[in-house]
Design a protein that fits this description.
Pfam families: AsnC_trans_reg, HTH_24. It is built from five helices and six strands. The longest helix has 13 residues. It folds into two domains: 41 residues, Orthogonal Bundle (Arc Repressor Mutant, subunit A); 84 residues, Alpha-Beta Plaits (2-Layer Sandwich), CATH 3.30.70.920. 33% of the residues lie in helices and 21% in strands. The chain is of the alpha+beta class. A four-stranded antiparallel β-sheet has the order 2-3-1-4. The protein has a two-stranded antiparallel ribbon with strand order 5-6.
């Protein structure tokens, strides 16, 4: 991807509300050039969606989020893709990643309660053919997401210790 478009992607990733006019000013380009580049990036599915990061701890409508490690046996000829597709089609599933290491897929899901998440794992995920095992981790608190820190910062009151 050309450097100009990459700069636009970086600026929109940082703040998706930036207008083409503002981006043009920041890059020293014309608004028309920026608007055309954004249109091309959207058509090529480089830019897929503009999203908002929400600090759910500050909202009464809290959700339960779980990360599930899934070990699977790959399907002959399709590898991990067919099973990953079966999993990501469930509406509870927010993300699915192919991983290296002790497990194959990392699945992020959201539910209203712990029981709802447990039901998904036991009734939908675990019974899938080729799923060997699952290990569920519940997110207790988010400190940072997508580069955004959720904590209100206090001044660092630790004493400096020098040798």
């Amino acid at each position: 991807m050309e450097q100009f478009k990459m700069k636009i992607v970086d600026l929109l990733k940082e703040d998706a509300r930036r207008s083409p006019a503002l981006i043009a000013t920041m890059l020293g380009a014309s608004e028309a050039e920026v608007a055309e580049a954004i249109r091309e990036l959207e058509e090529a599915h480089v830019i897929v969606k503009y999203a908002t990061v929400v600090n759910w701890a500050k909202v009464d409508n809290e959700k339960v989020t779980a990360l599930i490690e899934v070990q699977i046996t790959p399907e002959r000829g399709r590898g991990f893709d067919a099973i990953a597709e079966r999993i990501y089609l469930y509406p509870e599933v927010k993300s699915v990643y192919l991983m290296s290491g002790a497990y194959d897929l990392l699945v992020e899901i959201e539910g209203k309660t712990l029981k709802e998440v447990a039901s998904f794992v036991s009734n939908k995920l675990s019974p899938i053919d080729r799923v060997l095992s699952t290990k569920t981790h519940f997110i207790l608190k988010k400190y940072k997401q997508d580069g955004i820190t959720f904590e209100d910062h206090e001044d660092d009151r630790r004493l400096l210790i020098s040798p």
